[in-house]
Amino acid sequence: GIGTKIGIDATAPTPRPWEFQRLDLQQVDLDKYDIEE
């Protein structure tokens, strides 16, 4: 059971303007927040 998935955004124009550029997400330390289960 090995599988692979891929997602394609067919709505983005080419060449991609800055609105469609991928962003890097920041790391978040969840220990700093009071999270209730």
Automatic annotation (TrEMBL):
Protein name, as recorded: Uncharacterized protein
Source species, domain of life: Bacteria
